[in-house]
Design the sequence.
């Protein structure tokens, strides 16, 4: 038979922003007749989680959703009433909102701007991974008077470039998936478990003794990228340590992806 080449499992990351864009980002269409100004801002952990949990969605009535964004997440009321889309796939944890005033032909360009947003949130500026927790606001828009010169072929790539620029200027960071690890072991194995977790960037947040038994339970968060081979701890402890792992959350990689040799730059 054909030889099989086994590679390391692939880990998906997410892209986010950690600050608001310091200034509007402009992009021009290929024919130079259309311009889009955008800015990016972080949605915050609570709102991002609410979108993923289905508590804030594109299916809600506009005024109901706007009231929730203003009262619970402190959004500007005008921006909250003009949420255009969620993405990627029209239900992801990123939001496109219209922050313009008095722009001509805006309704006609809406679908093209939303298409650019769906494209961008699927392939971010850092590693072309999906975005998470990013808000994008359309600040201004100028379109050519002739419909022939403001079609999808001109406006969609233009909107995409403006959105990528906005993300780039808003302190972009990578997010890595985290497992919640629970290891049950006797006291004599605890040192080995702690050593394994520390070598793999594990964050131990709880350790408890189960009364009436010699067993201890250690709970920690472990990056998915560091989890491969973790179950070999069973062999190292002669089967006494029993690990269980389940996906917990996404965590921002603190390292600057533009800094040479940083963890995020290596990713």
Sequence:
């Amino acid at each position: 038979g054909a030889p099989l080449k086994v590679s390391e499992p692939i880990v998906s990351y997410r892209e986010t922003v950690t600050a608001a864009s310091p200034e509007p980002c402009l992009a021009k269409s290929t024919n130079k007749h259309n311009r889009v100004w955008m800015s990016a801002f972080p949605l915050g952990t609570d709102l991002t989680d609410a979108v993923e949990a289905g508590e804030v969605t594109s299916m809600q009535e506009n005024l109901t959703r706007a009231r929730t964004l203003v009262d619970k997440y402190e959004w500007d009321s005008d921006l909250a009433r003009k949420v255009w889309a969620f993405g990627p796939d029209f239900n992801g944890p990123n939001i496109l909102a219209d922050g313009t005033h008095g722009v001509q032909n805006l309704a006609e360009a809406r679908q093209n701007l939303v298409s650019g947003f769906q494209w961008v949130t699927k392939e971010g500026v850092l590693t072309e991974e999906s975005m998470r927790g990013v808000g994008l606001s359309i600040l201004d828009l100028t379109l050519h008077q002739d419909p022939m010169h403001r079609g999808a072929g001109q406006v969609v790539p233009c909107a995409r470039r403006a959105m990528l620029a906005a993300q780039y200027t808003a302190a972009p960071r990578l997010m890595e998936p985290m497992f919640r690890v629970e290891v049950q072991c006797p006291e004599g194995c605890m040192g080995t478990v702690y050593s394994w977790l520390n070598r793999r960037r594990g964050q131990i947040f709880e350790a408890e003794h189960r009364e009436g038994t010699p067993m201890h339970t250690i709970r920690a968060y472990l990056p998915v990228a560091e989890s491969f081979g973790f179950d070999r701890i069973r062999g190292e402890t002669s089967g006494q340590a029993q690990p269980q792992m389940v996906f917990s959350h996404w965590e921002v990689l603190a390292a600057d992806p533009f800094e040479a040799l940083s963890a995020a730059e290596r990713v």
About this structure: The chain is about 30% helix and 30% strand.
